[in-house]
Design a protein that fits this description.
There is one protein chain. With 213 residues, the protein is an alpha/beta fold. The protein is built from ten helices and eight strands. The protein folds into two domains: 105 residues, no CATH class; 102 residues, no CATH class. The protein is elongated and about 70 Å long.
């Protein structure tokens, strides 16, 4: 999952002139996923997580699918976030180590912040928000540096599209970090790029002719 930032200028005929090519790269959701993975490793241990991914690939993918859904829905107004952790992972951990996962958590910084009930994992919003810190800081720093470039001076609007733009945390951070900018977020920003691709597929000449070179 990449974060690509491109700067366009709308021309009088409503065509677009590219002022700055796509930049950013591996900023975004992948870093949030990695922070979540590191939490799992601290709770269950790297050997258990590696073996679980090998022997239970379906359940392993389900963990990240569940996290992805929560990642795009989390906000700072919740007290706790609840998502599923396959019982098979807990059972493997207990068989391999002889300890209950609750005992392991007590020895980490997540003590009192993460609890397990059956296949439900409850984590505080503080922990969930911490997964976003590195990604958000890098995105804000990158946009800040871009806005200093003379070739894109006068930029007034930020348009957010793509899957990571669905995150209320990212949306709020961009609005807070750039209060003088108009931040535009279309409904279902994750589908905006796909819809544009479909439109381009149906009328490539019409749309491409509006892109100024």
């Amino acid at each position: 999952e990449r974060v690509d930032i491109t700067v366009y200028e709308v021309q009088p005929d409503l065509s677009l002139k590219e002022l700055y090519r796509a930049s950013g790269g591996a900023l975004g959701g992948n870093q949030v996923d990695e922070a979540f993975k590191q939490m799992l490793i601290k709770m269950f241990g790297a050997p258990v997580i590696a073996e679980f991914a090998r022997s239970h690939p379906g359940d392993y993918v389900d963990i990240y699918r569940e996290f992805e859904n929560k990642k795009r829905d989390i906000n700072d107004k919740r007290v706790r976030v609840i998502f599923k952790i396959p019982i098979s992972l807990r059972e493997m951990f207990e068989e391999e180590t002889g300890y209950h996962v609750k005992e392991k958590i007590k020895d980490t910084e997540f003590s009192e912040k993460i609890t397990f009930v059956s296949d439900k994992c409850k984590i505080t919003t503080e922990v969930m928000m911490s997964f976003f810190e590195v990604a958000l800081d890098q995105i804000v720093d990158h946009v800040t540096e871009l806005l200093k470039k003379p070739e894109i001076s006068g930029t007034k609007n930020i348009l957010m599209v793509g899957g990571f733009s669905e995150s209320p945390i990212l949306q709020n951070m961009i609005k807070k970090s750039f209060p003088d900018m108009t931040v535009i977020i279309p409904p279902e920003p994750g589908l905006a790029v796909l819809k544009g691709a479909v439109l381009f597929g149906h009328k490539p000449v019409t749309i491409s002719s509006r892109i100024a070179k």
